[in-house]
Amino acid sequence: MKANAELRNKAGLKCYIERETDGKCCEWCTKMAGRYAYPDDTPKDVFRRHDNCGCSVTYKNGRQRQDVWSKKTWEADKDERISKASGKEPTVFGKVEAQAKQSEILARKELTYDDKRGIIYYRKGKSHRRLSSEGRQIIDKPTYNKIVNPAIKRGADIRLADEVWTKHLEEEKSRAVTIGDVIYFRPDATVSDVLEEVHHFYQNRNGLNAQYGVVQRTVMNEIDAKKYLLTMTEKYHIPPDEVYETEYWLKEYIKQMEEMKKRGEWNE
């Protein structure tokens, strides 16, 4: 179907990629959902999925549609009749909108590191990993204790976000916030969340990259933290979706570093 879609595109006929959620998906999948003109306006990550992902991705090619993963094919006009009857029409994204949708993911995490220290107090719970409302694996208590106890001995202040902080974090699309030696975590913190915050705590206690300005220090510490997280994948059984997110952010911070170097804003 992909080859067929490319052939139709070369012939000047319109083809689309549609990604639909199952209504109970994570934030990343929600942001990737939509209808994109193929191939020029299609984000490269639109085809990706994580464990337990319920999204569907299809080629709409003339009279037929095909599921990207199952390769199942059916008549496109059947879906259109159902869509019109239900009043649902997919939104078509142009190139600029598609790029903006990709960039929107970047806005999920804005960090400042001058005050970045600490970790969390984690409520009692079962030893297996539960799933959050976003479909992410919540860190289990034994793993949590293994990560945070050494940091506590070095002065980390551990707190669970109360109702006010939880609401604030949700609005910021984040699961953690750091103020001085204190880090507030939402109850649905993941292994990656805890590992990264503890690593940043050690970075700050050790004065890592403190000789640089806040922006460069932030970028350098983020790159260091992301590389560290990737080395911990097997040891802490980090889920594939978290690994992918870490890899994504590592590339973005490296890209930011290269852009700063080009502008002469980077000190070696």
Describe this structure in words.
This protein has 268 residues and is of the alpha+beta class. It folds into two domains: 2-106, no CATH class; 141-262, no CATH class. It has nine helices and nine strands. It has helices at residues 2-10, 27-32, 76-86, 95-106, 141-153, 163-171, 191-205, 214-231, 240-262, and strands at 15-20, 34-37, 56-61, 64-67, 73-75, 92-93, 157-160, 176-179, 182-185. The strands form two sheets. A six-stranded mixed beta sheet has the order 5-4-3-1-2-6. Strands 7-9-8 form a three-stranded mixed beta sheet, covered by helices on one side. α5 (141-153) packs parallel to α7, α7 crosses α8 and α8 runs antiparallel to α9 (240-262). The protein is globular. It starts with a helix and ends in a 6-residue tail after the last helix. 29% of the residues are buried. Residues 78-93 and 98-128 have low confidence and may be disordered.
